[in-house]
Amino acid sequence: MENLSQHVNIYPLGDSAIVVEFGKIISTEIHHRVYGFTKLIEGSERLPEVECVPAFTTVTVYYNPLLFLTSHSDPYGEVEAVLKDLMLELRPQKVDGLKIVEIPVKYGGEEGPDFEAVALLHKLSSSELISLHSSPLYTVYMLGFQPGFPYLGGLDSRLVTPRLATPRKSIPGGSVGIGGAQTGVYPLNSPGGWHIIGKTKAKLFDPALADPTLLNMGDRIKFIPVECL
Asked: Is residue 30 within a helix (H) or strand (E), and if so which, with residue range?
């Protein structure tokens, strides 16, 4: 059976957090490990009142040192030991049973001020750009930058686009953009350096709801081209 504890780096982040790093490269395999380990931590009774923050290749665990202080070890050592034990339970797994969310997108025009520039850069017609961007079933690798902002895996390599040389001071919430090998949706008005190719009316973050984010790590996204919002 594969030992998934190999090549894992565990190190402190300040005096009340630990980072578990599964690698340096964004990949589906590492995403599955991050997801699986996050679920193990969340289900462990040995880690009370911790906050687990998954990212592309890491899981950061924030803890209250006072809850882990024993006569036999320091708080960091106590939490590290639990994490190493949980690592022995980690098995290869896919992120199954999570939702697929369809997000309507109006590409180009006022909603996509960089649409034509991206098409020109990659020598694509408008229809080709829309098809390449909307065809994949994307995976939410992590949420970050803003509440509910999804970093997605699955962008076609033909659409990889360098970020803007000068970030915009304000990008409207709902804007769909490409930055490097990533694509995503700005949930809120914000500065940003991604190329904006369209816009959606989907609300990715609503603080009035019990679960304020539309998406979670592991969810899948399908962009649906529409004529108007």
From this structure: helix 28-42
For 30, phi and psi rounded to 5 degrees?
-70, -35
For the stretch 165-194, pLDDT in tens is 999 999 999 999 999 999 999 999 999 999
The whole-number pLDDT of residue 56 equals: 86
Task: Give how far the C-alpha of residue 23 lies from the chain's centroid of Cα atoms, to the nearest Å.
Answer: 16
**String of DSSP letters for 170-227:** EE-TTEEEEEBTEEEE--S-EEE-SEEEEE----SB-TTSSS-BS--TT-EEEEEE-S
- The CB density around residue 1, as the number of other CB atoms within 10 Å, is 5
Exposed, middle or buried by CB within 10 Å (0-12, 13-18, 19+), for 116? middle
| 20 DSSP β-pair partners | 10, 59
Q: What is the pTM of this model?
A: 0.79
